């Protein structure tokens, strides 16, 4: 499939200053992965630490898309930050489950569920 037949649409909104909600529509594959990567890199550059990737409009994702999700996950963890996948389509969820990505990257049904995970206090090593 060519880009002309299945263009990728990426919209970024900021629910909070450090959180980027990245809504993706279209095929996330070798032809479109660079565009997706550029949007995520731009948000990292602007200081976003948490990424909510809404994949509800992605009917197909190959290893190119999966690799970008894992790459931004690794970069966000170093900040420290996080990556959450929101409402993936059944085909995308299957890819995430089969590859084990869904074990590493949390998947939520709603944006509010992912924001609640971000806000959940982390265990502190200094706690008595």
UniProtKB/TrEMBL annotation:
<protein>
    <recommendedName>
        <fullName>Anti-sigma factor antagonist</fullName>
    </recommendedName>
</protein>
<dbReference type="InterPro" id="IPR036513">
    <property type="entry name" value="STAS_dom_sf"/>
</dbReference>
<dbReference type="InterPro" id="IPR003658">
    <property type="entry name" value="Anti-sigma_ant"/>
</dbReference>
<dbReference type="InterPro" id="IPR002645">
    <property type="entry name" value="STAS_dom"/>
</dbReference>
<feature type="domain" description="STAS">
    <location>
        <begin position="17"/>
        <end position="118"/>
    </location>
</feature>
<dbReference type="Pfam" id="PF01740">
    <property type="entry name" value="STAS"/>
</dbReference>
<comment type="similarity">
    <text>Belongs to the anti-sigma-factor antagonist family.</text>
</comment>
